[in-house]
Amino acid sequence: MKKRLLIVDDDPAVGAALQTQTAGSRWLEVCGQTTGVEETWRALHENKPDIVLLGGVQEAERGVLCQQFRLAFPHLLFIAACSEQELIWRVLQKST
């Protein structure tokens, strides 16, 4: 079963690029993309992702936001807080 991924970044182009790059993944499906803190809280409630990829969010400090997400949503398997340079994503696919 695929894990549901929520992408959070101030720049919508970053989320769009990550969605394109993960489109062929057997392990991930993007369940949402947000650009702000309030929008992210709504998406966490509505979409119930397994994983949150937290890029640049100017409204809040990433470390504090991660702690708040973890406390409010203990079902999250993983929260990755990444700088802009770390948001380079390559989907690993098994060669046939």
Key words describing this protein structure:
96 residues, alpha/beta, four-stranded parallel beta sheet, 3 helices, globular, disordered C terminus
Report on the structure:
- This protein has 96 residues and is an alpha/beta fold.
- Helices cover 34% and strands 22% of the residues.
- It contains three helices and four strands, in the order E-H-E-H-E-H-E.
- It has helices at 12-22, 37-47, 62-72, and strands spanning 3-8, 28-34, 51-54, 78-81.
- It has a four-stranded parallel beta sheet with strand order 2-1-3-4, with helices on both faces.
- The longest helix is centred in the N-terminal third of the chain and has 11 residues, at 12-22.
Give the helix/strand class: alpha/beta
SSE string, helices as H and strands as E: EHEHEHE
Total number of helical segments? Answer: 3
Please state roughly what percent of the residues sit in beta strands, choosing from under 5%, 5-15%, 15-25%, 25-35%, 35-45% or over 45%.
15-25%
Shape descriptor = globular
Overall mean pLDDT score? Answer: 81
> What is the share of helical residues?
25-40%
- Number of E-type strands: 4
Spatial separation of the terminal alpha carbons? 21 Å
Low-confidence stretches: 89-96
Give me the side-by-side strand order of the main sheet: 2-1-3-4
Radius of gyration: 13 Å
Largest sheet: 4 strands, parallel
